[in-house]
């Protein structure tokens, strides 16, 4: 059984937030930290995989929030590292809406429908009455009459809102609204390896085992005023003064980690109130490309009566020319449905959809990749999804510490939940808070030591000479006392 010395801080999870917190601690001289990661890698929801001849991003793919007044720190790190990216504007998708017979909506109508649908959907999501949207979205006779373009567009918008993290738009403007797709063989995760290299890896690139332990699934946290005991699935026990827990909101809602004493009610209620979003990118490889390319054609939409049914498509020609890869994104129920079936079934469904759009003669896909974020017990979601007009109290309760356990992760970011930069900033914030706590403890210990030393002094009425000689016996530099730093009353000295 492994037993490690007590750490100042244990960080649970090596995603962007956990690593950002660790970096802050290390930079502030708290070297006595240990990261326990459940999986066999660092990165969490930032993950690349080889597919065909290129690297595809199973999790985060875009650096979002770029081009505004304030620099997005993730964009800055990416630029410094020379991470290859390409501008990607999915709002163009509204001009490329295919119906089931492969007809593309005339762009004028599609654009007009889109605008109306966005306005109405925003009204609806804000809780403002909007009869036309109510009518359109609550229709029950779908099988009888086909949906009109406006109804299909509304479906798309609602799907789009779910996909793009429903976040108050006003908080988004600081960093800007441009989005860049990571198109680098080293993957988005390269950013994390570089961020962690100074404190997690040796100069030969080997993991520092006293700092990071992989395949350590934390199952129990026992906490008291004095510290936290962390138990892992393989029976190991670790002790720390503080814990930073960066597991996703989906994990917090599951029973993977138990707390003793249990988390207070305000905390569990806040955790339950946060919706989780499941978002799945399915990658399909083809022998050649049969879809339109060129400006404004990167994204296209399949308008189907069933909302979210293989709706949102993207080709990867801009990122990797000649890769012949299409990506289709699914959300929530559709994601869960697809995760639970075989990849062969998913491939068949996707091919029917593509043949609706592009005709029967298109070639079969030669390969498929279906990530499973929902069924991954270390994730149980793609990201947090607070309601449009979110209750700040919920977010601050999710973030608030319980005793010596501090919570971090994208879901604790008030301004950028759901994003990589949200996770990064949350980690920095939590790291700084824990550094402050440690400093407070140090000051308190100093004061306690001081009163421990002072007690005998105060009990006896000493002359200055006696006091000094008594201090010498305690092995404390007399200088410190005489300079008054520890607050010995003048009268004694
Ligand atoms: C499909 C998808 C697409 C996305 N697209 C974008 C995008 O384009 N742009 C963008 O900005 N963001 C995007 N995101 C969101 C972004 O990936 C996340 O917001 C961010 O990576 C979350 O980082 P984190 O550190 O909070 O959590 P995570 O990355 O999940 O890190 C938490 C870590 O904790 C570990 N862990 C969990 N439980 C335990 C346990 N019991 N014991 C030990 N370790 C544990 C996990 O294995 C994980 O490594 C996307 C996410 C997904 C899934």
UniProtKB/TrEMBL annotation:
The name this protein goes by in its record: Amine oxidase domain-containing protein
Superkingdom to which the source organism belongs: Eukaryota
Family annotation (InterPro entries): Amino_oxidase, FAD/NAD-bd_sf, Flavin_amine_oxidase, Flavin_monoamine_oxidase
Record domain Amine oxidase: where: 16-429
Keyword Ribonucleoprotein recorded: no
Coiled coil: none
Keywords assigned: Oxidoreductase
Signal sequence bounds: none
Protein family per UniProt: Belongs to the flavin monoamine oxidase family.
Pathway noted in the entry: Amine and polyamine degradation; spermine degradation
Required cofactor(s): FAD
């Amino acid at each position: 059984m492994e037993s490690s010395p007590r750490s100042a801080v244990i960080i649970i999870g090596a995603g962007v937030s956990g690593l950002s917190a660790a970096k802050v601690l290390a930079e502030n001289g708290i070297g006595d930290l240990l990261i326990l990661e459940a999986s066999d890698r660092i990165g969490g929801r930032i993950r690349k995989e080889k597919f065909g001849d290129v690297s595809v991003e199973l999790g985060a793919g875009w650096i979002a929030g770029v081009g505004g007044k304030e620099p997005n720190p993730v964009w800055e790190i990416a630029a410094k590292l020379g991470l290859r990216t390409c501008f990607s504007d999915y709002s163009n998708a509204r001009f490329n809406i295919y119906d089931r017979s492969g007809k593309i909506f005339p762009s004028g109508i599609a654009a007009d429908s889109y605008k109306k649908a966005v306005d109405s959907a925003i009204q609806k999501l804000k809780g403002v009455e909007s009869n036309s949207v109510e009518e359109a979205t609550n229709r029950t006779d779908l099988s009888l009459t086909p949906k009109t373009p406006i109804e299909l567009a509304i479906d798309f918008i609602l799907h789009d809102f779910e996909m793009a993290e429903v976040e108050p738009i006003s908080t988004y403007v600081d960093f800007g609204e441009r989005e860049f797709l990571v198109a680098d063989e080293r993957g988005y995760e390269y950013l994390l390896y570089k961020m962690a290299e100074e404190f997690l890896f040796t100069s030969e690139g080997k993991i520092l085992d006293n700092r990071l332990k992989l395949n350590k699934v934390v199952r129990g946290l026992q906490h008291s005023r004095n510290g936290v005991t962390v138990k892992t699935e393989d029976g190991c026990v670790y002790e720390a003064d503080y814990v930073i827990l960066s597991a996703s909101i989906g994990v917090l809602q599951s029973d993977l980690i138990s707390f003793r004493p249990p988390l207070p009610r305000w905390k569990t209620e806040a955790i339950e109130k946060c919706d989780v979003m499941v978002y799945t990118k399915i990658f399909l490889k083809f022998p050649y490309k049969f879809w339109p390319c060129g400006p404004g054609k990167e994204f296209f939409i399949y308008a189907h009566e069933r909302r979210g049914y293989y709706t949102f498509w993207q080709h990867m020609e801009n990122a990797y020319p000649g890769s012949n890869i299409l990506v289709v994104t699914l959300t929530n129920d559709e994601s869960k449905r697809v995760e639970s079936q075989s990849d062969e079934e998913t491939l068949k469904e996707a091919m029917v959809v593509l043949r609706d759009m592009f005709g029967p003669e298109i070639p079969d896909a030669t390969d498929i990749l279906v990530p499973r974020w929902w069924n991954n017990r270390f994730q149980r979601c793609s990201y947090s999804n607070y309601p449009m007009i979110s209750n700040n109290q919920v977010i601050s309760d999710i973030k608030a510490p319980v005793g010596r356990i501090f919570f971090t992760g994208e879901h604790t970011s008030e301004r950028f939940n759901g994003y990589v930069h949200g996770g990064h900033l949350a980690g920095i914030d939590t790291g700084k808070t824990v550094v402050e706590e440690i400093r407070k403890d140090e000051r308190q210990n100093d004061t306690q030591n001081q009163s421990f030393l002072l007690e005998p002094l105060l009990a006896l009425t000493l002359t200055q000479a006696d006091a000094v000689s008594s201090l010498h016996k305690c092995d404390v530099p007399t200088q410190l006392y005489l300079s008054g730093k520890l607050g010995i009353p003048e009268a004694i000295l």
